[in-house]
Each structure stands twice: as C-alpha cells, then as structure tokens.
TrEMBL record:
Coiled coil: none
A GO term for molecular function: racemase and epimerase activity, acting on carbohydrates and derivatives
Top-level division of the source organism's lineage: Bacteria
Organism: Saccharopolyspora kobensis
UniProt protein name: L-rhamnose mutarotase
Lineage: Bacteria, Bacillati, Actinomycetota, Actinomycetes, Pseudonocardiales
Length: 103
C-alpha cells in the first residue's frame, strides 16, 4: 500500500463551490476509485491550497486506470472549472516527496 500526498490549488472565489461539489461524490466515481485500488482519499483545505493524502495499492496504476475512465473524465472536467491547474492524467506524477515521518 502506498500513501501519496498531493497539493492542488483552487481558483479564487471557488472555495465554497469546491466543498459543495465534494459533499457527495458520484457513485460511479467512488466505484472507479475503489476498482483502481484506492483505499482512502482525504483532502484538507487552507485558503486556496488543497492537500490530499491518498492510500492506494499502486498510484501510477491508479492514474492509468482512471485516465480514460468515463466517471473520472467527467469529474476532472468539473474539477478543471474549480482548480487553478487541472490534472489531465498525462504525466508521471508521483506526488509530494516525503521528507520526515515520526516513527
């Protein structure tokens, strides 16, 4: 199991809308995430900055599985309206580099 940290940024003024959209995740997206090996996905917000922690079997395999999945394509289209930089799932994103952990 991998634990991946991510950071994204909201467009100014879209904070409430982002939280409203995330209040109910579409069932088909939930199923796609789980089928792609996601065990949990948590998001924290500090102003416009979003911090994600994803627990997933294989992060790169998850991204490949979701890249063209209809539920994720629709979700990413919606997120692109709210985020300062959209994620098109085309790169080799590996998340943030961990520098310390309390053992």
């Amino acid at each position: 199991m991998q634990r991946i940290a991510l950071r994204t940024k909201l467009e100014p003024g879209r904070e409430a809308e982002y939280e409203q959209v995330h209040a109910v995740i579409p069932a088909e997206l939930d199923a796609a995430l789980r089928e792609a090996g996601v065990r949990s996905w948590r998001i924290w917000r500090d102003g416009l900055d979003l911090f994600h922690v994803v627990e997933v079997e294989d992060y790169q395999a998850m991204r490949r599985a979701l890249r063209d999945h209809p539920a994720n394509v629709a979700w990413q289209a919606r997120m692109s309206e709210l985020l300062a930089v959209e994620d098109d799932y085309s790169g080799g994103d590996t998340g943030l580099r961990q520098v310390w952990e309390l053992p």
